[in-house]
Amino acid sequence: MSNIKPIIELELYIIRHGQSMGNIERNTDGLSHEELHDPRLTELGKNQAILCGERFKNVEFDAVYSSALLRAVETATEIIKKQSTEKCLKVLPYLTEAGVSEEYSHSSFTEINKINKNAVLADDVDPTKSLFYYNKTSDEGDLFERAEKAIEYIKSHQREGEKIAIVSHAAFITYLVFSLMGYKKECPFYDLDFKNTGVTKVTIYKKGTNKYGDTVFEFINDTSHLFKGDF
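Above: the chain's sequence. Below: its structure in token form.
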């Protein structure tokens, strides 16, 4: 093992969106369906997303993925703005927040492209189907299965050694992270409480080439970039 050179398959940067209107106490009377169920970033959330983008200005991502929910699209767009080369945002339905029902959101690519003109549906995703992944049951096994599908999708659509940003939501990120840790059916007894724009970096190595394991967590839920903001 000591003579084997570690081979990085992927570097994953899993990021929660910035603070949204749904993360704060507010009077919901009179709100539209979209405002209630697909809330946008607050001013604080926008600042958090900008600082998150600044954090990664020297990390050139090979791909940036997000869910179709607008708070994730807004956050991913701020990250892309700081990249040295123009790139598209890949919208991946697997990254939808956990527990979303079919009544939850009806945003379309028209709305997404108002935020990011270069947003596209991720490769090989059926364009005739919903932009959102709806949970039919509350079974954790279903969420772990979706997390596995998201990870396998990204592995199969990216090249060896690439750096990938994934912008999603607190509950679903929990399943992504625990899935990468090896949990398959249910969460462990502890919670990781992902913060707005918290970043988790996971390095995936080619099987058997890294003495510390094939999946290495460099850090979890890091928000150090937010301390640079005066708010």
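The mean pLDDT is 91.
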